[in-house]
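Obj: model holo form, ligand = adenosine-5'-triphosphate.
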Amino acid sequence: MATMYLMVGISGAGKTTWARTRMAGAEYIGSDGIRMELFGRELTLKGYRRVHRIMNQRMRAALEQGRDVVVDSVHLSRRARRRVLRAVPEGVRCVAVWIDTGVMQAIRNDACRQRHVPFFAIALMRPRLVEPKQEEGFHEIWRIPWEERAGCAAGWEKVQKYEKNENPAKIT
Ligand SMILES: Nc1ncnc2c1ncn2[C@@H]1O[C@H](COP(=O)(O)OP(=O)(O)OP(=O)(O)O)[C@@H](O)[C@H]1O
Ligand SMILES: [Mg+2]
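Output (holo structure tokens):
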């Protein structure tokens, strides 16, 4: 049975990092990549519906072919998650992967990467985040706290530097 992993978490939480390193076997579908394809940049409020429609179409196509898929966007509200869940074909296992990172840590993470989300936008996301629950239609909920990832970031090549509190995004 194919699995759809739906990432949940505020900007800077570490969703993309986790999805790319831990779910490398699943097909990756991210809203940033689709925004880049359509509008030439990752950060824009343009075309929300269009972006998410394309994500759903690609997700469905991959799942119908039996491939596992990871759908990467903030998915803060039940409504946003419902839109994805509705597009999932019958018989697919659905897992919500909640990358649970505090606001201050998410802002620090954001400062380490090349594109930046305004810090107030990150802070405003936290109260909008509704914890994912099985009753929404998920078979499983995985909550991944920041402490676990920061402490044992297996496969994270720069973890040593990170532990020394250096900026991992700038060391390459
Ligand atoms: N496990 C980790 N160990 C060390 N640094 C990390 C880890 N996870 C994330 N980071 C750092 O945090 C930054 C933000 O992470 P990431 O881009 O994955 O967040 P995101 O949740 O996908 O944000 P957005 O919703 O804005 O796309 C990364 O550039 C990286 O520097
Ligand atoms: Mg991301």
